């Protein structure tokens, strides 16, 4: 029994060490984004940047500094030293302001809000479209027998092997000739045509019992009605997994958007972040604030829908 | 499948027509996806092959160039360097990440439900963040003067290095970063497959007097082989397409020290606008990935 628990402690500490390494970069994004960027000592002689500090400050220094000034302000108030109290109170509000200044500059001097909105709405439009089109295609490919079914399926599946970079140049020419360059259509249409979901949906639809579909047909339901009110509700777990992955892919998509988008107000978050970095190479507080804003939604989505992530990965993976 | 296709194909044309008319709804269901697929995937794929044999002019027509694009691809120093870099990057990171995922998953699997959930989340969470974010923060962590990385390796007695700025360390900086990002997909897939290995196998081994390590080597690892094959293929394909880190952290430099195939395609196509050459490079990338996938699949499947 004793030996067992030593082993377990060892395993847990090893895994904890590994998870610290794995989570450290994300922690560093948030820590730097909230780090004090310029801070004056009490004697007003020296201005320190805790962002560019060697050795690095491991957490936002505004937190201890804030409480230090708070304590001093309280003390000064007790001693009726109004001048000192005001100074420390001012420092407290300065610290808060400086701590969040990266985020403020993102929204006031850059179009962060616009980029966020663009990413969000493109992600939603593509996800809804993919869920609808892929489940329709997956349904008939799994449950209907018609001439050409296998050819269509294998045609679609065989392109899954082709790296997406192969189509970059022709797609660029096509988008340009269609007059869609520097528009959101240039992102939405290609994203809607991704084929992975068809494969996933077809796999999933197989497990829906034929009897249910037959029964709906006998009851006189139209093909659309059968799909909409019998098949779709049964495919919910698969749809959830596909939806999350589609949204995540679109939200994080980078190579194609940097090729087709030129106007700053049309950028998605990843494109905006790249131009932000190009323009502020060494302003790491600003850059990490941008990175934090892009990371937060995906972290929230993951924490809420964790179960579906696992499901989607195992569905898309080996099912042998 | 289930004999129905055989009967369809053996029917006369008239039968096919009849069957198509009867199933018109199925075609309507397929229509939106199929249209998008044809326009934005099938046509561009075919077009890419055609373009790779052409000299593309922005104004005026395209001229046939025969194999000259392919010859320039293989003669160019940049492409050779990109191919070499991408290969080194893949050869180091893929085995390392798959093996660490296997070990991590095995350790996690031995724990209770709560701990399993916690570690699964801790290892998967960093992979939901966009590579753009990861690359930006690692560029900051690799900062020569103020970077966290130089500080941490200082604890172990290493001198600070200008990781991304020197041609002898830049590629390794990219590789180390990839090694330290947990292979979340791998861990989750391995965990799922492990829970489907039958307990009776382990019980039988225990009766035969096998210890934990022997059971792991003789039962767990072989039983997980399908997952391993899938993960190696998946991450090799992904690895050959490495791009985001490169453009955000080094721009392929210094010199060609971190040039990779996809970054080179990007530069050739969309900075220099040499469409024919970029198309040829991407076709070459496709065949490299295809050949490696087939070889890996065969090698890993060999003894079954």
Task: Please work out how many helical segments of chain A DSSP would assign.
Answer: 15
Gross CATH architecture of the largest domain in chain A:
Orthogonal Bundle
Q: Describe the sheet with the most strands of chain A.
A: 2 strands, antiparallel
What separation lies between the terminal Cα atoms of chain A? 38 Å
Give the low-pLDDT segments of chain B. Answer: 1-8
Broad CATH class of the largest domain in chain B: Mainly Alpha
Total tally of structural domains of chain A: 2
CATH superfamily of the largest domain in chain B: MetI-like
SS strand fraction of chain A: under 5%
**What is the chain-wise order of helices and strands of chain A?**
HEEHHHHHHHHHHHHHH
- Report the end-to-end length of chain B measured between terminal Cα atoms: 25 Å
CATH class of the largest domain in chain A: Mainly Alpha
How does this model look, in words?
Chain B: InterPro entries: ABC_transporter_permease, MetI-like, MetI-like_sf. Chain B: It is found in: Cell membrane. Chain B: It comes from Oceanobacillus limi. Chain B: This is Carbohydrate ABC transporter membrane protein 1, CUT1 family. The complex is a heterodimer of chains A (320) and B (304). Chain A is mainly alpha-helical and 320 residues long. Chain A has 15 helices and 2 strands. Chain A has 2 domains: 105 residues, no CATH class; 206 residues, Orthogonal Bundle (MetI-like fold). In chain A, strands 1-2 form a two-stranded antiparallel sheet. In chain A, a hairpin with a 6-residue loop joins β1 and β2. Chain B is mostly helical. Chain B folds into 2 domains: 48 residues, no CATH class; 229 residues, Orthogonal Bundle (MetI-like fold). Chain B is globular. Chain B starts with a helix and ends with a helix. The N terminus of chain B is likely disordered. The interface between A and B is large, with 96 and 94 residues.
């Amino acid at each position: 029994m004793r030996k067992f628990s030593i082993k377990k402690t060892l395993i847990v500490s090893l895994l904890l060490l590994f998870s610290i390494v794995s989570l450290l970069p994300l922690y560093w994004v948030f820590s730097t984004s909230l780090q004090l960027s310029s801070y004056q000592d009490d004697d007003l002689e020296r201005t320190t940047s805790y962002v560019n500090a060697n050795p690095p400050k491991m957490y936002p220094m505004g937190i201890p500094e804030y409480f230090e000034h708070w304590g001093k302000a309280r003390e000064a108030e007790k001693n009726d030293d109004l001048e000192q109290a005001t100074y420390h109170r001012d420092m407290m509000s300065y610290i808060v302001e400086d701590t969040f200044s990266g985020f403020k500059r993102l929204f006031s001097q850059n179009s962060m809000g616009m980029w966020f909105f663009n990413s969000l709405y493109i992600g939603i439009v593509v996800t809804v479209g993919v869920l609808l089109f892929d489940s329709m295609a997956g349904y008939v490919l799994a449950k209907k027998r018609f001439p050409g079914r296998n050819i269509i399926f294998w045609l679609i599946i065989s392109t899954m092997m082709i790296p997406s970079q192969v189509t970059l140049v022709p797609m660029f020419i096509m988008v340009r000739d269609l007059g869609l360059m520097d528009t959101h259509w240039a992102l939405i249409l290609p994203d809607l045509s991704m084929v992975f979901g068809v494969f996933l949906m077809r796999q999933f639809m197989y497990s829906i019992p034929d009897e249910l579909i037959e029964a709906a047909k006998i009851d006189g339901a139209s093909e659309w009605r059968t799909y909409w009110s019998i098949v779709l509700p049964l495919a919910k777990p698969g749809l959830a997994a596909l939806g999350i992955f589609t949204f995540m892919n679109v939200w994080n998509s980078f190579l194609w958007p940097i090729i087709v988008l030129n106007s700053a107000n049309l950028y998605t978050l990843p494109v905006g972040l790249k131009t932000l970095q190009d323009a502020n190479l060494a302003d790491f507080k600003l850059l990490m604030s941008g990175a934090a804003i892009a990371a937060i939604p995906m972290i929230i989505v993951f924490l809420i829908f964790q179960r579906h992530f696992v499901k989607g990965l195992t569905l898309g993976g080996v099912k042998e | 499948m289930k004999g129905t296709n055989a009967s369809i194909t053996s029917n006369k044309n008239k039968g096919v027509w009849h069957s198509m008319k009867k199933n018109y709804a199925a075609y309507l269901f397929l229509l939106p996806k199929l249209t998008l697929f044809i326009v934005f995937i099938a046509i561009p794929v075919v077009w890419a092959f055609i373009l790779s044999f052409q000299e593309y002019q922005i104004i005026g027509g395209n001229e046939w160039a025969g194999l000259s694009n392919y010859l320039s691809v293989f003669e160019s120093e940049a492409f050779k360097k990109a191919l070499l870099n991408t290969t080194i990057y893949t050869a180091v990171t893929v085995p390392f990440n798959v093996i660490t995922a296997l070990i991590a998953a095995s350790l996690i699997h031995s724990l209770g439900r709560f701990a399993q959930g916690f570690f699964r989340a801790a290892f998967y969470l960093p992979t939901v963040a966009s590579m753009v974010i990861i690359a930006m923060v690692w560029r900051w962590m690799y900062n020569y003067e103020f970077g966290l990385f130089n500080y941490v390796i200082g604890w172990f007695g290493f001198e600070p290095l200008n990781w991304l700025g020197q041609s002898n360390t830049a590629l390794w900086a990219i590789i180390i970063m990839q090694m330290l990002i947990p292979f979340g997909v791998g861990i989750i897939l391995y965990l799922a497959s492990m829970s489907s290995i039958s307990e009776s196998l382990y019980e039988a081994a225990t009766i035969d007097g096998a210890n934990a390590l022997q059971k792991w080597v003789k039962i767990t690892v072989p039983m997980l082989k399908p997952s391993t094959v899938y993960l190696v293929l998946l991450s090799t394909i992904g690895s050959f397409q490495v791009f985001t880190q490169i453009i955000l952290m080094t721009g392929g430099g210094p010199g060609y020290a971190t040039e990779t195939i996809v970054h080179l395609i990007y530069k050739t196509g969309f900075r220099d606008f040499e469409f024919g050459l970029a198309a040829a490079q991407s076709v070459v990338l496709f065949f490299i990935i295809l050949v490696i996938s087939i070889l890996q699949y065969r090698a890993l499947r060999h003894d079954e």
